[in-house]
UniProtKB/TrEMBL annotation:
GO terms for cellular component: membrane. InterPro entries: Endo/exonu/phosph_ase_sf (IPR036691), Endo/exonuclease/phosphatase (IPR005135), Sph/SMPD2-like (IPR038772). Belongs to the neutral sphingomyelinase family. Signal peptide: none annotated. Keywords: Hydrolase, Lipid metabolism, Magnesium, Membrane, Metal-binding, Sphingolipid metabolism, Transmembrane, Transmembrane helix. Pathway: Sphingolipid metabolism; Lipid metabolism; sphingolipid metabolism. This is DNase I-like protein. It is a multi-pass membrane protein. Coiled coil: none annotated. PANTHER family: PHOSPHODIESTERASE, PUTATIVE-RELATED, SPHINGOMYELINASE FAMILY MEMBER. It holds the Pfam family Exo_endo_phos. GO terms for molecular function: metal ion binding; sphingomyelin phosphodiesterase activity.
Length: 453
């Protein structure tokens, strides 16, 4: 069977147990909507409850019988992928930096933000690697550099994974909630280093980069691809927004990226993956209710698979996928030719790397300062425990005992917590930043040497 179209959806489902409003009702509505749709691949974020995933998986099983729910961190990654095509491999790569364990309210460290991926056996494209991610949230595009640095680390690690997948001859689709605006440094890093192309931009080439005045909420969705903080969404209507969200009547945080394989043999005639259309979906209310499907809208992309003229067809016996495939799956041809009509691949410039390094260096210094402060708190707690231990012998009134016990327990908890976050996590964060800074410096120096030559 020849497949000429590929429809992909990404949706942040906002499914945190006990916290997300109307979670059960919304998950059931999402499952019903997906069951009646005609998608080939669906990437979901913030599906924290496995029971919710089962509801969705059961509802769409006739159309998308293959699925994967990913585990990471203490509370799970919240990532899931559904596919119409056989999944022949799956993996999850937790990001090196995901905030601090002491930032309980933000919660990113506990859920283990990651890049999840499945390797799909597509009947026309051959090996198709699909990435699903949810990048570090706090800080936004204008927050402190030490918070933005964590998202930059996420973007760098995802870009490396996507680039490696393309270099071994796979088509790549990377979708999810990137928590970054289109012009931000993490988005530039992902597109430049991995040569990933933004499906929304490719299918809306005439859309202005900036609005001329304040757009209507509908225009913000249809023209600028706004998926979060839209006045049309019941959970963000009336919400206090940051400047960029006020300018665009919301933010574009959800993306679908794609690219062809790298380094093709020019004589082989293989398919070209091109985006045909993208649109923001799940913008309406849940049927019969006054609330939205999620606090994010979904993003849908329709790709067209084109067979170029000329060249020789690759023999399936020579390019058969070596991974184990389900018995009913046919032999597949490994596609290796990029789109000759596409724009030249973008490259990460030394200036961009320098800007990234500035943010990472600021985070490195902040991490060292924070670790010292937290270890100081640990020492103070230990000293206070010693004072209480020694001084309790001179307390004449036993009625103070419950208060002393409570203070002792609190100080012991604080000492243990700050020892861990100041020493164990502090060293982890500093070491991770050191490794990435050194890696980027080597990469920048290599680029500069090539420019000199």
């Amino acid at each position: 069977m020849t497949e000429s179209r590929l429809r992909v959806l990404t949706l942040n489902c906002w499914g945190l147990k006990y916290v997300s409003k109307f979670r059960s009702e919304r998950m059931s509505a999402i499952a019903h909507a997906l069951a009646s749709a005609n998608y080939d691949v669906v990437t979901l974020q913030e599906v924290w409850v496995y029971g919710d995933f089962e509801i969705i998986r059961t509802a769409v099983s006739s159309r998308m019988p293959y699925s994967k729910f990913f585990y990471s961190g203490a509370l799970g990654a919240g990532l899931a992928i559904l596919s119409r095509f056989p999944i022949i491999g799956a993996t999850i790569n937790p990001y090196s930096l995901n905030g601090s364990p002491i930032e309980v309210i933000q919660g990113d460290w506990f859920v283990g933000k990651a890049a999840a991926s499945v390797l799909v056996a597509h009947p026309t494209l051959g090996q198709l690697q699909i990435f699903n991610t949810h990048l570090f949230a706090p800080g936004g595009d204008s927050g402190p550099l030490h918070l933005q640095a964590h998202r930059l680390v996420n973007a760098w690690e995802l870009a490396k994974l996507a680039r490696q997948a393309a270099e071994v001859g796979r088509y790549v689709i990377a979708a999810g909630d990137f928590n970054s605006s289109p012009a931000s440094l993490p988005m530039n890093l992902i597109q430049d280093h991995a040569s990933l192309r933004d499906a929304w931009v490719e299918s809306h080439p005439n859309s202005p980069a900036m609005p001329n005045g304040l757009p209507s909420p509908v225009d913000a969705v249809n023209i600028f691809g706004v998926t979060a903080d839209s006045p049309l969404n019941s959970y963000s209507a009336g919400k206090r927004l940051e400047p960029i969200a006020r300018k665009f009547q919301g933010k574009r945080l959800d993306y679908i990226f794609f690219r062809q394989p790298s380094s093709p043999p020019a004589s082989v005639k293989t398919p070209i993956l091109m985006v045909k259309d993208t649109k923001v979906v799940f913008t309406e209310r849940v049927p019969g209710q006054n609330f939205s499907f999620s606090d994010h809208f979904g993003l849908e992309a329709t790709f067209e698979i084109i067979h170029p003229e000329g060249g020789d067809l690759a023999e399936s016996s020579d390019t058969h996928i070596p991974a184990p495939v389900e018995p009913q799956a046919p032999n597949f041809v490994l596609a290796t030719v990029p789109n000759p009509a596409s724009t030249p691949p973008r490259k990460l410039s030394p200036d961009s790397i320098t800007e990234i390094l500035q943010s990472l260096t600021a985070c490195y210094r902040f991490s060292q300062y924070r670790a010292r402060s937290q270890l100081t708190v640990f020492v103070v707690c230990i000293l206070l425990l010693l004072v209480i231990l020694v001084g309790s012998a001179w307390l004449p009134v036993s009625s103070f005992n419950p208060l002393i016990i409570f203070i002792t327990i609190f100080l012991a908890w604080a000492a243990t917590t700050f020892l861990y976050v100041g020493f164990v996590y502090g060293r982890w964060e500093v070491n991770a930043l050191t490794n990435i800074i050194e890696e980027l410096e080597i990469y920048r120096d290599t680029l500069l040497e090539r420019q000199i030559r």
